[in-house]
């Protein structure tokens, strides 16, 4: 049974979400603020954390950053559930290490469908080998680490997942739609610049020569 940690400072929302997810046969835990969430996540090791952004003591963005620094939670899915839908807010969430972003209010069926899709994405990712050697790069999925000519490169979660996807099939062009579906999910709404920002940052860190743009289509990891 998948374990979900709900984090929100509004008791009514917590109870509403908890009730509907328990009906879907998930084991559900709750936390009222970021600090409480970090403590419970370390103790309970949830499979997914549904995290509000605007909270007292420690907001969702900072909470996400702290959670992503805990190695034992590397495989935990983190999803923001928030009333804020601006592009810059979503990009900030993804850069903090979130896997997805759901805007309030959300209907129970939509939330359930989204969570199931996130768990399916994890299952597909598990089919990619734990270690990928592509050109001068060695990508270690278990350690979330990239090595280039003996030097380690640490990437935020979304940048790492994007690199793994592209490098898993060198010289194959992935369309923007395929990338959105694999990394952010079909139902997530993100700004058009989200992929471009992540690609630019990847190029800055691993070098300009690996990831090529196919204009009007998408991106590929090129090995000559």
Question: Would you mind describing this structure in some detail?
Answer:
This protein is of the alpha/beta class and 224 residues long. It has two domains: 3-125, Rossmann fold; 131-221, Arc Repressor Mutant, subunit A (Orthogonal Bundle). The chain is 42% helix and 22% strand. It has eight helices and twelve strands. It has a five-stranded parallel β-sheet, with helices on both faces. A four-stranded antiparallel β-sheet has the order 6-7-8-9, covered by helices on one side. A hairpin with a 2-residue loop joins strand 6 (131-134) and strand 7 (137-140). Helix 2 runs parallel beside helix 3 (60-68) and helix 6 (157-168) packs across helix 8 (194-206). The longest helix is centred in the middle third of the chain and has 18 residues, at 108-125. The radius of gyration is 18 Å and the shape is elongated. The protein starts with a strand and ends with a strand. The mean pLDDT is 85.
Describe the structure concisely for a colleague:
This protein folds into two domains: 3-125, Rossmann fold, CATH 3.40.50.2300; 131-221, Arc Repressor Mutant, subunit A (Orthogonal Bundle), CATH 1.10.10.10. Helix content is 42%, strand content 22%. It has helices at 11-23, 34-44, 60-68, 87-95, 108-125, 157-168, 176-184, 194-206; strands spanning 3-7, 27-31, 48-51, 77-82, 100-103, 131-134, 137-140, 145-148, 151-154, 174-175, 211-214, 218-221.
Residue fraction in strands? 15-25%
Number of helices: 8
Structural class: alpha/beta
- Give the name of the CATH superfamily of the largest domain: Response regulator
Strand order of the largest sheet: 2-1-3-4-5
CATH architecture classification of the largest domain = 3-Layer(aba) Sandwich
Return the CATH class of the largest domain. Answer: Alpha Beta
Number of domains: 2
| H-E order | EHEHEHEHEHEEEEHEHHEE
What is the overall shape?
elongated
Largest sheet: 5 strands, parallel
Helix content: 40-55%
Low-confidence spans: pLDDT under 50, at least 5 residues? none
How far do the termini sit from each other? 45 Å
**What is the averaged pLDDT score?**
85
């Amino acid at each position: 049974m998948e374990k979900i940690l709900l984090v929100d400072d509004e008791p009514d929302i917590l109870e509403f979400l908890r009730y509907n997810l328990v009906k879907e046969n998930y084991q559900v835990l709750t936390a009222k603020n970021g600090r409480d969430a970090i403590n419970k996540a370390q103790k309970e090791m949830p499979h997914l954390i549904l995290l509000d952004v605007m909270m007292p003591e420690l907001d969702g963005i900072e909470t996400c950053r702290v959670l992503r620094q805990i190695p034992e939670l590397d495989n935990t899915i983190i999803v923001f559930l928030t009333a804020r839908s601006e592009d810059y807010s979503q990009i900030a969430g993804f850069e903090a290490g979130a896997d997805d972003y759901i805007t309030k209010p959300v209907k129970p069926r939509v939330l359930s469908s989204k969570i199931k899709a996130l768990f399916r994405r994890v299952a597909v990712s598990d089919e990619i080998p734990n270690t990928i050697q592509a050109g001068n790069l060695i990508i270690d999925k278990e350690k979330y680490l990239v090595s280039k000519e003996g030097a380690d490169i640490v990437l935020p979660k979304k940048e790492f997942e994007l690199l793994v996807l592209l490098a898993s099939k060198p010289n194959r062009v992935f369309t923007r739609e395929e990338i959105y579906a694999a990394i952010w999910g079909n139902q997530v709404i993100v700004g058009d610049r989200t992929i471009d920002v992540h690609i630019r940052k990847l190029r800055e860190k691993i070098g300009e020569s690996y990831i090529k743009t196919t204009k009007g289509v998408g991106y590929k990891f090129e090995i000559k």
